Amino acid sequence: MKRKVSALIVAAGRGTRAGAGLPKQYRPLGGEPVLRHTLRALLAHGAVRDIQVVIHPDDVPPYEAATEGLTRLRPPVFGGDTRSESVLNGLEALAAKAPDIVLIHDAARPFLPPEIIDSLLTALQGSPGAFPALPVVDALWQGANGKAEAPHPREGLYRAQTPQAFDFATILNAHHKATAPADDDVALAVQQGLDVAIVTGDERNYKLTTPADFARAERESMMDIRTGNGFDVHAFTEGEAVTLCGVRIPHSHGLLGHSDADVAMHTITDALFGALAEGDIGQWFPPSEPEWKGAASDIFLQKAVERVAARGFTITHIDCTIICEAPKIGPHAEAMRAEIARLTGLTPDRVSIKATTSEKLGFTGRKEGIAAMATATLVKL
User: Fold this and answer.
1) pTM over 0.85
2) For the residues of 305-363, what is the DSSP string, one character each?
3) What is the 8-class DSSP label of residue 207?
4) C-alpha closest to that of 356 among 332, 380, 321
5) What phi and psi, each to the nearest 5 degrees, are found at residue 32?
6) Which residues contact 64 (CB under 8 A, 6 or more apart)?
7) Is 303 strand, coil or helix?
8) DSSP 3-state assignment of 130?
9) Segment (H or E) for 258
10) Cα distance between residue 83 and residue 182, in whole Å
11) In degrees rounded to 5, what are phi and psi of residue 193?
12) Which region, left, alpha or beta, applies to residue 266 given φ > 0 means left and ψ of -120 to 50 means alpha?
C-alpha cells in the first residue's frame, strides 16, 4: 500500500543575518521569495501529498504573496517561541488527516534535490527516522580568542541537512513526550531512544544564512539551462555494416550519406548545435563541400562539443533513440554509450542510447533506412 507523505516547512523564524531587513524565507531570490522556491522543490516530488507551513503571526501578508497560485498547501499555522514548539504546532495541524510519513524541512533550503527525498523514503522502510547528511571533510580545531588550541577528530562527524523524515505517529509522540526543546527533530528523536538513519546529503541542499549564501544562491538561480533536439534519417544502401554512435555494426546493408552516414551521431550533434541555437550540422559541414565526403562523424560531434565549451556551457546529459527494424541495437548499446561519453567528456551514466521500432510502419518499418532522434541538455552556471 502506498504510504501517504506530507511535508512540514518551518518558516516561523526571524532570521535576518542574511540582510535585507526581512526574514530570509521571504527575501527575493531570482525574483521570487525563498519560501516559494522551497515549496516548489517539495511539490515537484510525486510522493509529497501536501505541505503544512508554520509561520510567524506577523508574516501572514508575505506568506500569502509567496504562496499565491501554489496548490496542495494546507492553511498555515503559527509557530511558537522555539523551533520545537513550531514543529509540534505543525505536526498537530497535520494530525487531522494524518500522513504516514512527514518530511520536516527548513524554509531556507530552496535547492532540495528530489534524490534526497527518494533516499529518505527508502530508509524509512527500515527505520522510524532518517535525515540527509554529509561527512565532515575539513580539519576541525577548537579555538578561543581567535587562536587555535587543539585539533578535534572529524571521524564519524556529519553536517546535518533537512528534510528530516519520520514515521508521523512516532515523531508526534516524541514531541508530546519531550521535556525540553531540541536543536532539531533528529536530536529530539535520539534523546528518546529512536533509531535515526543517515542518508547521503547533497552539497546543493545548503541552507541560506549569510549574505554570501544569498550571493551564491542568486548565481545558481540564474543558471542558464538549454535543451536541444536533433533528428536525422539515412537510407540503406549496398554494404555490409552500419556505423552508429561510432560503433561499426555488421549488417546486410550500409547507410547512404555524404559522410560516414552515422545517423545517431549526426542527430546528437544537431541536438548540441540546437541547444546553442547555432544552426545544424548541414550549416557547419555542408554536404556540397568535397572535404566532408566520407568523413568520420566524430569530427562533427567534436566541433559541437568545442562550441559548447566556447560558449561557457557544460553538457550534462544526452539521450538518443535509434528507430529501425534492423540491425539489433541492444547488443551494441553499451559500446555506443561509451563512445559518445568519450567524445563528449561525459560519464556513461549521463548518456542514454536506446532503440525502438516503428511497428513495421513507414520507411523504417519497411527496412528502407534508419532514423534517430536526440535530446541534449546544457548548463551554464
Assistant:
1) no
2) HHHHHHTT-EEEEEEEEEE-SSS--GGGHHHHHHHHHHHHT--GGGEEEEEE--TT-HH
3) P
4) 321
5) -135, 155
6) none
7) helix
8) strand
9) none
10) 8
11) 80, 15
12) alpha
- In this structure, what DSSP letter does residue 127 have? -
In this structure, which amino acid lies at residue 32? E
For 155, which DSSP code? T
Amino acid at 179: T
pLDDT in tens, 56-101: 999 999 999 999 999 999 999 999 999 999 999 999 999 999 999 9
- Are the C-beta atoms of residues 163 and 45 closer than 8 Å to each other? no
pLDDT, tens digit, for every residue of 270-312? 999 999 999 999 899 988 888 888 888 999 999 999 999 998 8
Cα–Cα distance measured from residue 370 to residue 79, given in angstroms and rounded to the nearest whole number? 62
State which H helix or E strand residue 143 sits in.
Answer: strand 140-144
229 DSSP β-pair partners: 375
The values of phi and psi at residue 377, to 5°, are -115, 130
C-alpha 339/C-alpha 117 separation (Å) is 33
Domains of the chain: 5-216 (3.90.550.10), 224-380 (3.30.1330.50)
> Cell for 321?
533513440
| Cα–Cα distance measured from residue 233 to residue 246, given in angstroms and rounded to the nearest whole number | 16
374: which 3 cell numbers? 536526440
Of 58, 90, 57, 56, give the one whose Cα is nearest residue 74.
90
CA-nearest of 265, 247, 268 to 378 is 268
